[in-house]
Design a protein that fits this description.
About 50% of the residues lie in helices and about 15% in strands. Helix 1 packs antiparallel against helix 3 (about 40-65). The chain has helices at about 1-30, 35-40, 40-65, 70-95, 120-130, 150-165, 185-190, 200-215; strands at about 100-105, 110-115, 140-145, 175-180, 225, 230-235, 245-250. It has 3 domains: about 1-95, no CATH class; about 100-185, no CATH class; about 190-250, no CATH class. Strands 4-3-1-2-5-6-7 form a 7-stranded mixed sheet, with helices on both faces. The two termini are about 45 Å apart. The protein has 8 helices and 7 strands.
Length: about 250
């Protein structure tokens, strides 16, 4: 039993270190709050953890018989490690492709933009027309302003396309502008929590209570919802400086 437990502990330690390096780098580089929550990648992470930290070491515990020939034991553990590495690579690639690149303000809403949302041709156009705000493989999340173009025909084309499932302006980084360029528009769109659309009565009460507990004023026009694919957060701004004061889970 001691032999099996030692093999289990060593395998668990190695798997934990490798998983921490792989996922930790992505978390601290791209997925810090609210990115991790809005992208809803916990299902992918749960699968990787299940295979790498539960199934792998457990199988090693089962196959690590003291009387087993070393070459047979090495073969068995190699198979287990191969499956673990495949799961880790799958999880890492999935997280990389879905990493947050932008937190955007456009028209009257905040939305997250992930790497998987941007088409290669849009990225190429942005790198030519708007290199300062274009995405690159090393780009980390940035807060940006995504206004519709000044040309009415081009703006209408984008809006109509988005209505029928095409790309929206937040998927076109060639039009992006610095965050500070949109602060005037942002200020005019902030609402009190009681006015924010998309919140039910219970959610409003919960948000107001959480704001009050943080010393924030629910009656001020300082709130706007940020949307992910499914999940939402409530972003609270300082009414004067428009610095972000807090970000709350709505669900």
């Amino acid at each position: 039993m001691k032999y099996r437990l030692r093999a289990f502990a060593l395998h668990l330690l190695g798997s934990t270190c490798l998983l921490s390096l792989a996922v930790g780098g992505l978390y601290f580089g791209w997925y810090r709050w609210p990115g991790w929550y809005l992208t809803e990648v916990t299902k992918v992470l749960a699968l990787v953890v299940l295979v790498d930290l539960v199934l792998g070491p457990t199988l090693t515990f089962l196959v690590a018989a003291p009387k087993k020939l070393r070459r047979v034991l090495a073969r068995d553990i190699a198979i287990i490690v191969t499956v673990q590495l495949a799961a880790l690579v799958y999880g890492w690639v999935t997280l990389w492709q879905g990493r947050p690149l932008y937190y955007t303000f456009s028209v009257d809403r905040l939305e997250i933009v992930q790497a998987s949302d941007l088409k290669p041709d849009e990225i190429a156009q942005a790198q030519r027309a708007n290199p300062a705000l274009a995405p690159h493989w090393y780009s980390r999340p940035r807060w940006i302003y995504a206004p519709l173009p000044d040309d009415p025909e081009e703006a209408a084309k984008i809006v109509n396309g988005a209505v029928f499932g095409g790309d929206d302006i937040i998927d076109m980084p060639r039009y992006f502008k610095p965050w500070t360029a949109g602060l005037g528009q942002l200020r005019s769109k902030l609402q009190t929590v009681a006015e924010v659309k998309g919140l039910n009565k219970v959610e409003r009460q919960r948000m107001q209570a959480r704001m009050a507990s943080r010393g924030l004023i629910p009656g001020q026009r300082n709130a706007m919802v940020m949307w992910g694919d499914i999940r939402r957060v409530l972003v609270i701004f300082d009414p004067e400086t428009l610095n972000i004061r807090a970000t709350f889970k709505i669900a």
